[in-house]
Amino acid sequence: MSGESSQRIYNFSPGPAVLPLPVLEQVQRDLLCLPGKGVSILEMSHRDKAFIDILDATQAGLRKLLGIPENYKILFLQGGSRLQFSMVPMNLLRGEGRSADYVLTGTWGKSAQKEALREGQVRVAWDGAATKYDRLPPAAELSFDPSAAYVHLTSNETIEGVQFLCEPDTGNVPIVADCSSDFLCRPLPIEKYGLIYACAQKNAGPSGVTIVIIRDDLLAAGADSLPGYLNFRSHADENSLWNTPPTFAIYVVKLVVDWLLNDIGGLSAMYDRNVEKAGLLYEVLDESPQFYKGHAQRDSRSIMNVTFRLPDADTEKAFLAEADRRKLGNLKGHRSVGGIRASIYNAMPRDGVLALRDFMREFRAGR
Fold this sequence. Notes:
The structure is a single chain. It is built from ten helices and 14 strands. The chain has 367 residues and is α/β, with parallel strands linked by helices. The mean pLDDT is 96. The chain is globular, with a radius of gyration of 21 Å. Strand 3, helix 4 (107-116) and strand 4 form a beta-alpha-beta unit. The strands form four sheets. Strands 2-10-9-8-5-3-4 form a seven-stranded mixed β-sheet.
């Protein structure tokens, strides 16, 4: 690296998180003026044909990456997953006799359930609180209501570090998934989902845009009495232009999608990279479980967020201080659980994971 890039740390932040260096370099080159357009993307109207082309290209790239069928709409909204915690039940749950099942595997699943309770009947299909959300439910522990409006799950819990790498069988009940922190980390069988939402700042772009992928039949569930912005149909009918969208954030998502398609070779290749990167860190946890105690059980581990504790608070403090000195940044665990959290999203280079792995071994040997 040279110039400004040589000053960059390995950024293990859980979000807003690391972006691909080629994407940042293209943003830097084109920020003052998009080639041939005469203005910056920051100055461009969302009605300008040049932006419409960016919007359409972003949608097309996502469809190609994920194999999204034509009977799904792709929306670009604001408000993050916090707003989706409310928008989903507002559109899908309101109404006489409707109920939804929620699978609670961590902090964000609980937060989604709390908001859904404001809108209608919610049934907890499984709750991992008894073991401090260190695992996912096996099929034998899941029980779904066949008449539920949807089953909600959080595909990856960033705080606890547990992740669904395959979907539970919900029968004919559509799955609604908060995929905020592992969106685009692997191929997804989209046809198994009714709705997917993801705030971009973990793995797909900068903060400010939330991607919603929704099946056409679920668009009809939202009542006309809903406030305009809170009705998915408002955005689907206007190609995400009913309200001024987050234009810059969408532009960066397009660049990330292009990087995944052209530089990485698609989501299967990205998944292989992610599994290999995560394995480098879990190997250290497994070879020294008394020193590095992982939070997640082995069969539930996330390939995006590796969470663990050290023997005591003073040792963790020393670990974080030395990591910062070595330009391994933002490793402190969430305030609610403490410990260490290494977020190794798509854009975290393998060299960064290797540097952390080597440091972990050296630190352990020196204690």
